[in-house]
Amino acid sequence: MLIAKDFDTITVTQIMHQAQVRRQSFYDYFRDKYDVLTWIYNDEIKAVLNDNLDYEHWTLVLTHTLRYFQNNRDFYIKVFAIHDQNAPEAVIAQHIESLIRTVYTDISAQAHLTTSDAQAAFSQRVIAMGLVAEVKRWLVTDTQATLDQEIQLLQNYLNDSIQGLLANHRQ
């Protein structure tokens, strides 16, 4: 439904009709249409990102994540255009931050470098926000980067950035 219409024109009644649920059933699970939207990208991004971090290398998880966004491009172009409550960038960034935490841990272990917990948390948050901004830019603009090129650029960026941070902020 979101792909065909702007989010601000979609009503709870339309969502209930599309999902074939009663009003009370809808409100048993969701407060409003924003809650539904948050649930969708929380559930789907969690399945792509967080559920894979325990057993796949971060480079594969990044690949899966970018492929997911590319496959759902029309949906996320609409999602990223929403600037009301439950801003998608903030929720998506929380999930991306778990990926960055894994990358940070992996690279710091390989390089035998550490930083303070405060510096690590700050760096992970800022890098996650930047990654979300780049994914948004990549999806919503006509870009020359293919999926494989974008994956390679982001892998290099994450590796170089985190190694540089770790080297510059030794404990």
Structure, described:
The chain is mainly α and 171 residues long. The protein is 72% helix and 0% strand. It contains eight helices and no strands. The protein has helices spanning 12-19, 23-29, 33-48, 58-71, 73-80, 88-111, 117-140, 147-168. Helix 4 (58-71) packs across helix 8 and helix 7 runs antiparallel to helix 8 (147-168). It is elongated, with a radius of gyration of 18 Å.
Radius of gyration: 18 Å
H/E series:
HHHHHHHH
Q: Please summarize the sheet with the most strands.
A: none
Structural class designation: mainly alpha
Q: Could you tell me the mean pLDDT? A: 84
From the N-terminal CA to the C-terminal CA, the straight-line distance is 51 Å
User: Which parts are unreliable, with pLDDT below 50 for 5 consecutive residues or more?
Assistant: none
Instruction: Classify the beta-strand content into a percent band.
Output: under 5%
Helix fraction by DSSP (H/I, runs of at least 4): over 70%
| Count of runs of 4 or more consecutive helical residues | 8
Number of strands: 0
Spatial shape: elongated
